[in-house]
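Please go through the sequence and fold tokens given here and tell me how the chain folds. Record follows.
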Amino acid sequence: MKKTTLTLIASLLTIFSFSQEENQQIKIDSIENSFHYEHGTISLKNGVGKIIIPNGFKYLNPEQSERVLVDLWGNPKSDNLTLGLILPENLGVMSENGYVFNIQYDEIGFVKDDDADDIDYDELMTQMKEETVEENKERKKEGYDPISIVGWAAKPFYDEDRKILHWAKEIKFGNSDVNTLNYNVRVLGRKGVLVLNAIATKAELPLVQKDINKVLDIVQFNDGYKYKDFDSSVDEVAAWTIGGLVAGKVLAKVGIFAIIAKFGKVIALAFFGFFGAFRTKIKNFFSKNKKAENDSEALAEHSEEIPEETIEETTEETIEKENEEPL
């Protein structure tokens, strides 16, 4: 009788787990279906240029993209607003494995590229790591986990003819098992740089690298905003050079490290790899269901050793806890 009861309990728990998983998928599908993607040529809202969406990709406009970044992925609103997201056609913003490019424009002035051939990127990486160690001291005082730059995921490369700079850093937050990929593309213009930041984890690096050449040429500045249109008599020269862009100095005024210090690990992870918070939630959900299933099997195997009233009490508490815990 006890074994029959336990088998029934195990079956109910398994059904409950599948039901939870199905409900979660329904919610994800509902969110995905609420977005309207675009293709072809997209004129940027700020008037500086346009983006030609390559084959195999799709575009999400600024309003919907902000909803993704802020409401779904838990990032703080930024002064440097998004101009949209680009992602592979076969993926969605809620996909577990995948990436997106966040598009922004930073009007920092005309970036001189005179130093491009003189930069020792290994030395620059050493400097950035040392600076991060010092910044971590302040984060520790504030009670936040440290961050560390693991190294180059892809060494910086500057295409002088196209005025395109791109590189990737591998970053670790606290004791996280998953490192974050910080893949950056900067397209230089007359008054600033168009920023394309890949939002992904280190595991998605091969995907990003496979597609990066499709993304590099998608930006076209309008006449009057192109790099060649620079007029030294009226235009402002940026304080940052090529080396400064790679070191992250271009982000100083929107406070990349201030964001980390103020909001802590979760927001920091979201800033570099916006999937972080939501992915963790989904993974915890499925891990929780798997654990419940494994616990059910263990109960059935050891039914003779556990009093029936104890099992019933434990099962009721487990189900009650699962119902109370938010998804």
